[in-house]
Amino acid sequence: MQALTPQTAQWWQTGVIYQVYPRSFQDSNGDGVGDLDGITQRLPYLVELGIDVVWLSPFYTSPMADFGYDVADYTDVDPIFGDLAAFDRLVAAAHGLGLKLVVDFVPNHSSDQHAWFKESRASRDNPKRDWYVWRDPAPNGGPPNNWLSVFGGPAWTLDETTGQYYLHSFLKEQPDVNWRNPELRAAMLGAMQFWLERGVDGFRFDVAHYIMKDPDFRDNPVRERMEGFVFKDMGDYDSLVHLYSKAHPDVHDVYREVRALLDRYSTPDNPRFAVGEIHEFDWALWAKYYGEQNDELHMPFNFALLGRPWHAGIFRGIVDSLEAAVPPGAWPNYVISNHDEHRVVTRYGYDGARAAMLILLTLRGTPTMYYGDEIGMQNTEIPPELEQDPWGLRVPGLGLGRDPERTPMQWDDSPNAGFAPEGVTTWLPVNADKTTINVASQMDDPRSMLSLTRRLLSLRRKMPALSIGDYRPLDSVPADCFAFERTFGDQRVLVAVNFAEHEQIVHLADAATCEVLASTMMDREGQVDLDAVSLRPFEGIVIQV
Ligand code: NOJ
C-alpha cells in the first residue's frame, strides 16, 4: 500500500476536527442559546487555534427532546439556531478561512414531529407507514420483542390509534426510520444531497451502526454478566446483549451507497467525507465500516480512548491494537471527548488532560477534539432543577446525564463568559471556573493549556512525521510511561508521556542530544539527552531527533 505523502493525503487525514455543540458555542442574539451566526463570528478563533475541520452537532428543525438529535425537518435550520441564510453565511465564512465544515446527520431516527412520522402513524395503510418500524403487539398485548431503548425502558411504544407498536432505539420522541424501505432510503440520501449542494464537506453519521436491525426482530439474548470492557454502566439496558437490534450486516450496503453519493459530489480538489459514530469495541467488526474495498465510511470514529483509566499500558494497548486493526489503505483516528462523555479534565485532571491532548495530537490518525478541550474546560455541576438531558432524567443515579459536558464555551471571565450578554439566562449554567479557565486569559499566557494546544496543532501542521508519518511504540520506557516514534522520510519525532505521579528518567534511545519541540508544561525548551530524559509527573514531551 502506497504511503501517504503531503501531496496525496486528503484534508480529513491531515486535518484536526473540532466539534462544536451549537447550543453552547456562541449566542449572537442574546436568547441564552448558541446559534449559527455566533459560530460564524468565532471561526477566526478556530483558525488561529490551528483547527482544520469544524464538525457541527445538529442544528436542524427540532422539538429538542434530545437537543437536536430528534430532527423534524432534515433540510432546514431550527429557528433557535438561525435559518438557511445563516447556514450559508457559515459555510461561506468557513471556506473563506480555509476551514472544512462537517455536519451531523441523524440517519437512525427522526423526531416524532417529523411530517414523515405524522403521516406514517396516521393509518396502517398510509403510504409512509413502512418508512418507520411498525409491529403488531405480542400475543399478550405487550411489545413485539424484548428490545430496550438506550435511554431507558422498552424500545417500543404502542400507538393507540392504529394498534401497533413503533420502534425507538432512543426516546419515544425519536422513532427509528426503516432503511429497508427504498423510498425512505431515497429521501434520506436526498437530504444528504441537499447539504452537499449547500457546500458541506462531509457528514458525521449519528449512531451509524443502528440503522439496520434483524429483519426477523428476534429477541436479544439476556446478558448473564458484563464481560470485557464496560464503556459505561447503562442500567437496565445492560441486561441484554444488543445483538439483533442494531448493526445487522446489511448496514454495509447502506454505507456503500452513501459513499457512492459522496464520491459523486467529490472532485480531486474537494473530496467529501463521512465519519460514523460506531460504538463497537470488537476491532474486527469496527473495521468493517471502512468497507471491504475502503468503499464505505472514510472513518468509523474510534472511541477506544473514552471511558478508559489513565494508564500507560492501556493507552499503548489501544493504539497498538488500532494500528493492527485498521485495514490496508484505511486511515486511523482518535477521539478524546465529545458531547456524550465526561470532559477530559474531569476524567484525568488538569495535568492528565494536557498529556492526553499531547497524545491525541501526536498519534497517527485524525484527531477529534471537543469545544473547550483546548482550554481545559471541565464538567459543570448542574443543580437538579436545571438538569435537561433526557438520558440523565430518565435513567437517574448512574451519572448518565450529559449536561455537565455541554455548558457554554468560556471565552472570557465576564458573567456569561462571553458566550451570551450579561444578564441573560444561559440554557445551561456557565461553569464558575470561567474566571480562570477561559480563552482570553489563556491566550496571552505562554504556559496555558491553550498555548500548549496551539503549539501542538502548529507542530502537527508543520511536520509530516506527526500528521502522516509512521508510528512505532518504544519498549525502552518504564511501564507507567508511553513513548512512541513518528517518522516521515528522514524526519523523526519522539513522544514520551509520564503517566505516573512521580518523576521518571526514561531512556528513549542511545545518547544523543536533541531538541525539545514541546512539553505539556510549556516551560521547557532546548536540548535533552535521549539516553536519560527526565519527565515530571504527568509530563509529556515531543522531541525532534
Ligand atoms: C448519539 C449522539 O451522540 C447522542 O448525543 C444522541 O443522544 C444519540 N446518538 C441519539 O441520537
Task: Give a structural overview.
The chain has 545 residues and is α/β, with parallel strands linked by helices. Helices cover 24% and strands 17% of the residues. It has 13 helices and 21 strands. α9 links the parallel β12 and β13. α2 (36-49) runs parallel beside α3. The longest helix is centred in the middle third of the chain and has 17 residues, at 344-360. It is globular. The structure holds 1-deoxynojirimycin (NOJ). 1-deoxynojirimycin (NOJ) binds next to loops.
User: What is the rounded distance between the termini?
Assistant: 26 Å
| Distinct bound molecules | 1-deoxynojirimycin
CATH architecture of the largest domain: Alpha-Beta Barrel
Range of strand content: 15-25%
CATH third-tier fold name of the largest domain: TIM Barrel
**Classification by helices and strands:** alpha/beta
* Shape type: globular
Quickly list its features.
single chain, 6-stranded antiparallel beta sheet, 545 residues, TIM Barrel, alpha/beta, 3 domains, globular, 13 helices, 8-stranded parallel beta sheet, Oligo-1,6-glucosidase, domain 2, 17% strand, Immunoglobulin-like, binds 1-deoxynojirimycin
Task: Summarize the model shown.
By secondary structure, this protein is an alpha/beta fold.
Q: How are the SSEs placed, and which strands pair?
A:
Layout: H1 11-14, E1 17-20, H2 36-49, E2 53-56, E3 60-61, E4 73-77, H3 84-96, E5 100-105, H4 115-122, E6 134-135, E7 156-159, E8 164-167, H5 182-197, E9 202-205, H6 251-264, E10 273-276, H7 283-287, E11 299-300, H8 312-325, E12 333-335, H9 344-360, E13 366-370, H10 390-394, H11 439-443, H12 449-462, H13 464-467, E14 470-473, E15 481-488, E16 491-498, E17 504-506, E18 513-519, E19 527-529, E20 533-535, E21 540-544
Parallel strand pairs: 1-2, 1-13, 2-5, 5-9, 9-10, 10-11, 12-13
Antiparallel strand pairs: 3-4, 6-8, 7-8, 14-15, 15-16, 16-21, 17-20, 18-19, 18-21
The protein binds 1-deoxynojirimycin.
